[in-house]
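fyi for ur records
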Amino acid sequence: MVRRRVATVLAVFCLTGVTACGGGPGTNYVDDMTKLRGEPEYRLGVADVVSVTVKDNPTFSAEQAAVRPDGNITLPLIDDVRVVGLTPSEVKREVVKRLEAFIKAPIVTVTLVDLRSYEFFVLGQVRSPNRYTANRFVTVLQALSVAGGLTQFAEGDSIVIVRRFPDGEKRILFDYSSVVEGAKIADNIYLQSGDVVVVP
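which gave:
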């Protein structure tokens, strides 16, 4: 079932010009890699677990709050809080705003306890193209390694990472040889959940 889904995804990418199957004119590429470097702040997904601590108010805290399929977590006093797609710092601001009706100047800490929704795809000329999950951020090279490495037919210097940004889907070029040889080691960026690494 998973392999069928992956094959379908790859076919769709080829038809829509996402990969080297035919990017075509006007393809939206990222031209500033510096903004992509460093470990990104994680955005919560369904099944992730967070800890919400309210200083000096343990009865309002939650040691483990799981993100339900409806995108909410449940907290004492303020009930449901929609958190899916938010970073922990954004969840903190929302919880503080909700608690201010009950507590004066609440001090809130939101910590990611268990990362369960992080996933990425590695497709094309790798030994094991598939959908993968992890409990931590992985780099592009780590993702390629998990997928068994490049095949002998791979065009490693034309790898594309497909990522969704607030203003739409964009492509990030990845030159495998330059990264491995150390010329562009900083381009070995962390993948975000939902990223698709395509090896032509």
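Confidence is low (pLDDT under 50) at residues 1-26. thats all i got for now
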